[in-house]
Design goal:
Two copies of one chain form a homodimer. The first copy, chain A, is of the alpha/beta class and 362 residues long. Helices cover 45% and strands 21% of the residues of chain A. In chain A, 49% of the residues are buried.
């Protein structure tokens, strides 16, 4: 039996949508039916997820007139314009109308590309996110960022486009590989750091329960993560200002991902190390205590996340890669730092000298 | 010297933008500067337009830090995902930031693909429309529809995305080939038919001045066309309902374009014949007088527009092609008809029998 444990709403005026968190939601036919307007569905997943969960969603869809199932190859390298083009070929071949609904069943790659396909197909059709990884559940499924990668940069081609609903089925976390689970926890911890100190303290205390994948703890952590993100997104849907704080650790993290080649480091792993660098920089500026940096390092080690950049990347490599980041505006690099635990700020005065000091071999 | 003859605003809340109509606007550096936020510009045109007008815009842009000029091949067949991908390659290679501005200098194809590229690049950057054909000036430059074609259907992949401003330089019409000019007039006449009877009567009276490309008449006709379109778009940005009336003649027209292969009939030519079919159908339902249909046929002939579908397309060909149109919702074909001159309506009860009657060999 399915069970909704938490429901929250991402408040965006007429584009407000619900996020359901609970058990067995992906086979909840009534919940799905509430958010599917027509009789046509495009179900997009990948080779890893489809064998595990696609059948349950298909059954829950019942006897709809037209269900096109698209199974993508698994991997960040397929989050491309080419894959997008393949999706449009299938959807056009099956003659889906403007009234169709796209369902993204999978992790961040499936969610991002499905969302972008839905944003563009006939200039926008409905879609539903069913994220199956912890990272997607707390990050990419809330906020309406959709995209594909360009060979020269991640997420460079995309749209802000909101789903009709997000169904977070925490059962899917039981089949998630340990490394991906840990990477997802990096983003969970991020929400505590940027905007919710009590949640951060809760995470420090309850991390063993999360690592044991206890259902109640997972639902709680996901709900508080999504609530934090939803609040930031509601205030700044199109990343005019505040929303940038969600990028804590991402400027350094993207440099690591790009420098190493997509997929070698998981996104959450790169962000974890990036956050540690951001905290270290914040401490050097005297904004947070050095002991907080050490406690955070300990937390990352408990989660089995990396606490140092790749050995082959020096400060110059970081500076070069960061210069071509979306977060550069007219030549100025924006970095997210902490004024305190639970309080992020956006700075654009980080000097190359500071970066070199931070990344110098100790 | 440049001269703004008319300014109107497309009212879309925080996305409201101005449409300037006048003389020599594309070389008006002050007007351009008002709508370019940063120091980076991507100027997109095509092989036909670039030699005529690109230098003027480039000069008006002055000494901006980074100007990337992209010249597309000319033709509807290049309004594709492949061309879009080429644009992203160029823009990424030149490292344009989120603060860049795309300028579309050309007809509908350039405007549609540039607008869609701007909508997607880094999830949305600013863009300015500088339409150089009559069709683009009165149609695609107002309303925020951007798109590329899919091999199986026109405009199937796109976004609703508004420009910062539209600069309509009527001088560019002096170099427009006669056939394209006539095709543009088809859309001008459309606005009179769907929502503005006084404008339709004005057009019947002043068509000789327009065909002679008199400056004041052109500016007047463009202003009234844009004003009519802006009003419809303001009331229904995302084509929930009312906006569909802009598709008068388009369901038949798209069938002709698709059936003949893109580019054989110009869009405006196909729409002209499509509108005549829609008026004929309206008259058969008793909603408008048969004499109005005859007067409209005469007007089309004056403009040198076609007044009959291609000889090789019978009713069955139309029915098959129309069944896979964006305007089909859950199996029901929506067609725009006239309740009176200046008053369009959306109907979804047109039967195959009616279509066969309309298109039967006489």
């Amino acid at each position: 039996m399915s069970l909704i444990m938490h429901t929250l709403h991402v408040e965006l005026g007429e584009r407000t949508y619900p996020v359901y968190i609970g058990r067995d939601l992906l086979s909840d036919n009534k919940l799905l039916a509430q958010h599917i307007a027509g009789s046509q569905v495009v179900l997009i997943s990948n080779e890893t997820i489809a064998p595990l969960y696609a059948e349950r969603v298909r059954s829950a869809l019942g006897d709809r007139q037209l269900i096109t199932e698209i199974v993508l190859p698994d991997g960040e390298q397929y989050k491309s314009l080419d894959t997008l083009s393949d999706i449009f070929d299938r959807v056009m071949a099956d003659k889906h109308s403007r009234n169709t609904t796209f369902i993204a069943l999978g992790g961040g790659v499936v969610g991002d590309i499905t969302g972008f396909a839905a944003a563009c197909y006939q200039r926008g059709v409905n879609f539903i996110q069913v994220p199956t990884t912890l990272l997607a559940q707390v990050d990419s499924s809330v906020g309406g960022k959709t995209a594909v990668n360009h060979p020269q940069g991640k997420n460079m081609i995309g749209a802000f486009y909101q789903p009709q609903a997000v169904l977070i089925d925490i059962n899917t976390l039981q089949t998630l590989p340990a490394r991906e689970f840990s990477a997802g926890l990096a983003e969970v911890v991020k929400y505590g750091l940027i905007s919710d100190e009590p949640f951060y303290r809760w995470l420090q205390e309850h991390m063993p329960r999360l690592l044991a994948r206890e259902e109640a703890a997972l639902a709680e952590a996901i709900e508080r993560s999504c609530a934090n993100k939803a609040q930031v997104v509601a205030e700044d849907e199109r990343e005019g200002g505040l929303r940038a704080i969600l990028n804590l650790g991402h400027t350094f993290g993207h440099a690591i991902e790009t420098g190493q080649g997509y997929g070698k480091w998981l996104h959450g792993e790169a962000v974890a190390t990036g956050m540690l660098l951001a905290l270290e920089l914040s401490a050097r500026r005297g904004w947070i205590e050095a002991t907080e940096v050490e406690d955070f390092r300990t937390l990352l080690l408990d989660i089995h996340l990396p606490v140092a950049p790749p050995a082959d990347m020096d400060a110059e490599a970081f500076l070069e890669l960061m210069a071509h980041d979306k977060k550069v505006i007219d030549g100025k690099l924006r970095v997210i730092l902490l004024k305190a635990i639970g309080s992020a700020c956006i700075v654009d005065d980080v000097t190359d000298t500071e970066i070199r000091g931070l990344l110098a071999p100790s």
